[in-house]
Amino acid sequence: MKSLLIAVLLGAVYAMASEVCQDLHAIKVQTQWKDAYGESSDRVALAQAVYRTLFKLAPESAAFFHRVNGEHPDSSEFVAFSLRVLNGLDIVITLLDQKEALHAQLEHLHHQHIDRHVPPKYAAAFVESLHHVLPAVIGHCYDEVAWTKCLGNIAKKILA
Ligand code: HEM
């Protein structure tokens, strides 16, 4: 009887956790993203820092962004694009505790990327880029493990 109760409780905990990351990591990512993006006075600078870092880590990835003028990261086209991406990331992070809506949003983003043929290895480069940028914005409270788990899975699902 006792082991049945434990099994039911464990099942409930796992059911709460999203397919992307466990609840504690999700809460940390949501809180830290709110500090970095939600309360940012300069989202353009944040978005540009993310892509400048990505293009330093993986210079060849700029070629994927030709249609949005990725060769010129300061151009209005690319600035607007980079903000659309951060807005997309904001939606995903907001939904980390809404399992079904999160799944729907990740499917939507996945479909937006299929025709781009971006190799999945760039998911890691994107995560690495945020590892460089976010601590500079929010300081030492940045939780690298939580971001690696949550954002790593998010980016992998989008590019899969
Ligand atoms: C968490 C990770 C990511 C999120 C949330 C995300 C989000 C988005 C969104 C919302 C769009 C559509 C923007 C629009 O309306 O124009 C987009 C387009 C695109 N993304 Fe991502 N993305 C992610 C990762 C990546 C990575 C790692 C790459 C490649 C290195 C990539 C390459 C592209 C390309 C090539 C486009 C289309 C650009 C065009 O219009 O030609 N994405 N992404």
Automatic annotation (TrEMBL):
<dbReference type="InterPro" id="IPR044399">
    <property type="entry name" value="Mb-like_M"/>
</dbReference>
<keyword id="KW-1015">Disulfide bond</keyword>
<keyword id="KW-0561">Oxygen transport</keyword>
<dbReference type="GO" id="GO:0020037">
    <property type="term" value="F:heme binding"/>
</dbReference>
<feature type="binding site" description="proximal binding residue">
    <location>
        <position position="113"/>
    </location>
    <ligand>
        <name>heme b</name>
    </ligand>
</feature>
<keyword id="KW-0408">Iron</keyword>
<feature type="domain" description="Globin">
    <location>
        <begin position="20"/>
        <end position="160"/>
    </location>
</feature>
<dbReference type="InterPro" id="IPR009050">
    <property type="entry name" value="Globin-like_sf"/>
</dbReference>
<comment type="similarity">
    <text>Belongs to the globin family.</text>
</comment>
<feature type="disulfide bond">
    <location>
        <begin position="21"/>
        <end position="150"/>
    </location>
</feature>
<dbReference type="InterPro" id="IPR012292">
    <property type="entry name" value="Globin/Proto"/>
</dbReference>
<dbReference type="InterPro" id="IPR000971">
    <property type="entry name" value="Globin"/>
</dbReference>
<dbReference type="GO" id="GO:0019825">
    <property type="term" value="F:oxygen binding"/>
</dbReference>
<dbReference type="GO" id="GO:0005576">
    <property type="term" value="C:extracellular region"/>
</dbReference>
<dbReference type="GO" id="GO:0005506">
    <property type="term" value="F:iron ion binding"/>
</dbReference>
<dbReference type="Pfam" id="PF00042">
    <property type="entry name" value="Globin"/>
</dbReference>
<keyword id="KW-0479">Metal-binding</keyword>
<feature type="signal peptide">
    <location>
        <begin position="1"/>
        <end position="17"/>
    </location>
</feature>
<dbReference type="GO" id="GO:0005833">
    <property type="term" value="C:hemoglobin complex"/>
</dbReference>
<keyword id="KW-0732">Signal</keyword>
<dbReference type="InterPro" id="IPR014610">
    <property type="entry name" value="Haemoglobin_extracell"/>
</dbReference>
<dbReference type="GO" id="GO:0005344">
    <property type="term" value="F:oxygen carrier activity"/>
</dbReference>
<protein>
    <recommendedName>
        <fullName>Extracellular globin</fullName>
    </recommendedName>
</protein>
<keyword id="KW-0813">Transport</keyword>
<keyword id="KW-0349">Heme</keyword>
